[in-house]
From TrEMBL:
Residues 141-203, 205-261 form the CBS domain. Acts as a magnesium transporter. This is Magnesium transporter MgtE. GO terms for cellular component: plasma membrane. Pfam families: CBS, MgtE, MgtE_N. Homodimer. SUPFAM superfamilies: CBS-domain pair, MgtE membrane domain-like, MgtE N-terminal domain-like. The chain crosses the membrane at residues 289-307, 313-340, 361-382, 388-414, 426-449. PANTHER family: MAGNESIUM TRANSPORTER MGTE (PTHR43773). One of its GO terms (molecular function) is magnesium ion transmembrane transporter activity. NCBIfam families: mgtE.
């Protein structure tokens, strides 16, 4: 399969569109089917009136790969253009987990209609996946895998692979089950190929299998696949039976999805980071955070009011409020990102809670010392006010250290409450550090001014 660059894709779209307009099926198929499915999907989306001809020139089995490469919103749009029989055959030729992902985006009535149109066996596999709780191993696993018996000979396994392999999502690992379909071992395709044909699976398989449970969180499953560099991992039910497998491509999708969710949480824009979301929905999703933080921001004004007399005595202090607040907010957000990432990867458990907090506090203090020295020197040079420089410099040093601790601790506390630590969003941390940094700034200022 050929992969297209931007210029080649534009040329292909023009050639393919022309072959469709002229209804030259062989020319179209030769051009289109030589592309990678991901490029086929991109080319297809460039077409307009010609799409109806594509459905005539491609079999449902061929179009299934193209359909699977679309984003969910595009799948819903394209599905409406297909007649019921063609659509049912497309779904029958997709892997069960991919069909389940698509149906999960639809209304219950539409989902039922599609499942009724599909082959009964394929539909049952999809129903099983849909029955699992969202974001679990069971919900993302595929049912298309190859299982073998420990008593099978290598010759028998190879014959079995020739029959079942084309329909499996991956055959790099073959999972060994006993008479009760319980997971007993695993053998790689390499183990089988290099073994003598008369040997049995039990002689070449490994009985030490790393598996996951159907109810395990999908992010934990993805991290396990990443940790062990697996191409797939088996999924077992509560009785130890092999229920399916999670493949590396699904793990990559999970990691990308979780990263997008974390970014949305940290920025206070969860659910609206997708540019395809309309403005009204994006505003509705973001507004609660903004309104909440607006009320929290009133505390900032209150803090300034408490130290009104200090500001009146040294008006120049007001000029550095934005800098103090901005520096602390930025540092807190950095520590927040470090903490959320450490929780997601399990580094907190490996490194230790107090070691992580100590490291971030030390980092904040060191940055604060460097920033404080620089700002003290600059204020002295530009304003000739050594006292103001000491106040601002010392305040930044303490504020950055505290901001680092806050940015680290808040997601850890939220995680202990069994909530997603990423909801300790950047705007929330920024507002919190604004209040604390102002308290530190004016406390330091009041103390030093009164002592002179």
């Amino acid at each position: 399969m050929e992969k297209l660059n931007e210029q080649a894709r534009e040329e292909f779209v023009e050639l393919i569109a022309k072959s469709l307009q002229q209804e030259r099926m062989e020319a179209f198929r030769e051009l289109f089917l030589d592309l990678h499915p991901a490029d086929q999907a991109e080319v297809f989306l460039e077409l307009d009136e010609e799409r109806a001809v594509v459905y005539e020139f491609l079999s449902p089995e061929e179009f299934a790969e193209v359909f699977d490469s679309f984003e969910p919103e595009v799948q819903k749009e394209v599905a409406l253009q297909l007649n019921d029989q063609y659509a049912a055959e497309v779904y029958n030729n997709m892997y069960a987990d991919d069909v389940a992902d698509f149906l999960g985006e639809l209304e219950p009535r539409q989902m039922t209609h599609i499942l009724q149109a599909m082959d009964q066996e394929d539909a049952n596999d999809v129903r099983e996946l849909l029955a699992y709780e969202d974001k679990t191993a069971g919900a993302i696993m595929t049912k298309e895998f190859v299982s073998i018996k420990a008593t099978d000979t290598i010759d028998e396994v190879i014959d079995h692979l020739r029959r079942e392999g084309p329909d499996a999502e991956t055959i790099y690992y073959l999972y060994v089950v006993d008479e009760e379909e319980k997971l007993a071992g695993v053998a790689s395709i390499r183990d089988l190929i290099v073994a003598d044909s008369d040997r049995t699976v039990s002689e070449v398989m490994s009985s030490r299998v790393v598996s996951v449970h159907v109810e395990d969180d999908q992010e934990e499953v993805a991290q396990l696949i990443q940790k062990y560099d697996f191409l797939a991992t088996p999924v077992i039910d509560s009785e130890g039976r092999l229920a399916g497998i999670v493949t590396v491509d699904d793990a990559l999708d999970v990691l990308a999805e979780e990263a997008s969710e974390d970014i949305g949480e940290i920025s206070g824009s969860r659910g609206s980071t997708d540019v395809s979301v309309n403005a009204f929905k994006a505003a509705r999703l973001r507004a609660p955070w903004i309104i909440l933080l607006m009320f929290l921001g009133l505390f900032t004004a209150q803090v300034i009011g408490w130290f009104e007399s200090t500001l009146e005595s040294v008006v120049l202090l007001a000029a550095f409020i934005p800098m103090i607040m901005g520096s602390a907010g930025n540092t807190g957000t950095q520590s927040l990102a470090v903490s959320v990432r450490a929780l997601a990867t399990g580094n907190i458990e490996r490194k230790g809670l107090w070691r992580t907090i100590s490291r971030e506090f030390s980092t904040g203090i060191m940055i604060g010392v460097a920033s404080g020295i620089v700002i003290t020197i600059l204020l002295y040079l530009f304003y000739g006010e050594p006292l103001i420089g000491v106040i601002v410099g010392f305040s930044i040093m303490i504020s950055l250290g505290m901001a680092s601790v806050i940015g680290t601790l808040v997601p850890l506390v939220i995680n202990k409450l069994k909530l997603d630590p990423a909801i300790a969003s950047g705007p929330f941390i920024t507002t919190l550090t604004d209040i604390i940094s102002l308290l530190i700034y004016f406390t330091v200022a009041s103390s030093l001014i009164q002592s002179i």
